[in-house]
Amino acid sequence: MNFKIFLEKNIENYSNNFLEVAHDTNKVYLKMIGYAEQKGLDVYVYNLSGGFMWNRYGTLMGYTSDTVTIKHGSNILICGEHGEVKFTR
């Protein structure tokens, strides 16, 4: 089964991922990677509900709920939920 289809069918199980802020009545939602896909020369990353999060130039190597691995030239970038580079190789 395609991971994107799995998420669409099971999103209600993941939609309650939030943290309560002790000093405020607002909820702070966790940013989790739902899926990543290659579109042309860019990698696009989406959240669990399919909303766009960020994109970066390169070739998609793989992804988890926390990171996306992108090959950029001879470098391999491991990017976090916000698109920040966590590691390079």
Structural account:
This protein is 13% helix and 49% strand. It has one helix spanning 3-14; strands at 18-20, 27-29, 33-39, 42-47, 52-57, 59-63, 68-72, 75-79, 85-88. A hairpin with a 2-residue loop joins strand 7 and strand 8 (75-79). It is mostly beta strands and 89 residues long. The radius of gyration is 14 Å and the shape is globular. It starts with a helix and ends with a strand. It has a four-stranded antiparallel β-sheet, with no helix packed on it. Strands 3-4-5 form a three-stranded antiparallel β-sheet. Strands 1-2 form a two-stranded antiparallel sheet. The longest helix has 12 residues, at 3-14.
Shape: globular
Q: What structural category do the secondary elements indicate?
A: mainly beta
Radius of gyration: 14 Å
Q: Report the mean per-residue pLDDT as an integer.
A: 80
Order of helices and strands: HEEEEEEEEE
- How many beta-strand elements? 9
What portion of residues is helical?
10-25%
Q: Can you summarize the main beta sheet?
A: 4 strands, antiparallel
- Output the number of helix runs: 1
List its traits.
globular, 4-stranded antiparallel beta sheet, 9 strands, 89 residues, 3-stranded antiparallel beta sheet, mainly beta
What topology emerges from the helices and strands here?
Elements: H1 3-14, E1 18-20, E2 27-29, E3 33-39, E4 42-47, E5 52-57, E6 59-63, E7 68-72, E8 75-79, E9 85-88
Task: Offer a concise description of the structure.
By secondary structure, the chain is mainly beta. The protein has one helix at residues 3-14; strands at residues 18-20, 27-29, 33-39, 42-47, 52-57, 59-63, 68-72, 75-79, 85-88. A four-stranded antiparallel beta sheet has the order 6-7-8-9, with no helix packed on it. The protein has a three-stranded antiparallel beta sheet with strand order 3-4-5.
